[in-house]
Design a protein that fits this description.
- By secondary structure, the protein is an alpha/beta fold.
- The protein is about 40% helix and about 20% strand.
- The protein is built from eight helices and twelve strands.
- The protein has helices at about 15-25, 40-50, 65-75, 90-100, 110-125, 160-170, 180-185, 195-205, and strands at about 10-15, 35, 55-60, 80-85, 105, 130-135, 140, 145-150, 155, 175, 215, 220.
- Strands 2-1-3-4-5 form a five-stranded parallel β-sheet, with helices on both faces.
- A hairpin with a 2-residue loop joins strand 8 and strand 9.
- The longest helix is centred in the middle third of the chain and has 16 residues, at about 110-125.
- It starts with 8 loop residues before the first strand and ends in a 5-residue tail after the last strand.
Length: about 230
């Protein structure tokens, strides 16, 4: 297991059942968690729910194809690496992959050693290189250690509080909707809007009143410039 991969979550989006199962079987021993989806629509929903660190996607899929899904993922989280897999190398698809900011394009049949090498390089260059997210007013966030720091001191957060802060920082400057927050922080649990407000107030007491912004009726965000 690679040290660069074993703390990460990966999303596999592939409509061919055998290929998807094979990739899951191989990658489950390399990654902390492996999520799978059968098409771009399901892939986008699972991306919003689980916030994976890396996405692997076939291009030609029913309902929503891999490149359309990638475009939507990059709007939500521009820094999340996406590896596109295709049985074709047509110039039009390659150019469109560039347009939607695909990070790597791999042709089928996929060589597993090549894929693992690509994923490790991506983890080291695109994820570890941006390990520390610098925020304004003395705040920073260590994405590998999952620690929020203010003025050089770590802020103690519960597991749910950390999941909430991590989600907002992954989508820095963008309003994260209440439903997305519920899906990530309270997986499989029922939670009221009032309980969420109380939860956020408790975090603000720890991190400062201006760190988390409220978008009334929609959700919460952390601004790029606090």
């Amino acid at each position: 297991m690679s040290d660069a991969l074993n703390k990460l979550t990966i999303l596999i989006v592939e409509d061919e059942n055998d290929t998807r199962k094979l990739m899951h079987e191989i990658l489950k021993d390399e990654f902390h968690a492996v999520i799978t989806a059968q098409n771009g629509d399901e892939g986008l929903k699972k991306f919003k729910k689980y916030n994976p660190d890396i996405v692997i996607s076939d291009i030609a899929m029913p309902i929503v194809d891999g490149l359309d899904m990638t475009a939507q993922i990059k709007q939500i989280s521009p820094n999340t690496p996406v590896v596109a897999i295709s049985a074709h190398s047509e110039k039009e698809k390659l150019l469109r992959a560039i347009d939607v900011s695909v990070d790597k394009y791999i042709l089928k049949p996929v060589d597993i050693d090549e894929l693992l090498s690509v994923l490790e390089i991506i983890a080291k260059t695109k994820i570890e290189a941006t390990n520390i997210t610098e925020l304004a007013k003395g705040y920073s966030f260590n994405k590998t250690k999952r620690v929020l720091i203010k003025d050089g001191k770590e802020i103690a957060l519960t597991k749910k509080e950390l999941a909430f802060i991590t989600l907002l920082i992954k989508r820095l400057g963008t309003v994260v909707l209440h439903d997305d927050i519920k899906n990530v922080v309270w997986i499989g649990e029922s939670v009221s809007e009032a309980a969420i407000r109380t939860f956020v107030k408790r975090i603000r007491d720890k991190v400062g009143p201006d760190f988390i912004k409220n978008a009334p009726g929609l959700g919460y965000k952390i601004d790029v410039d606090l």
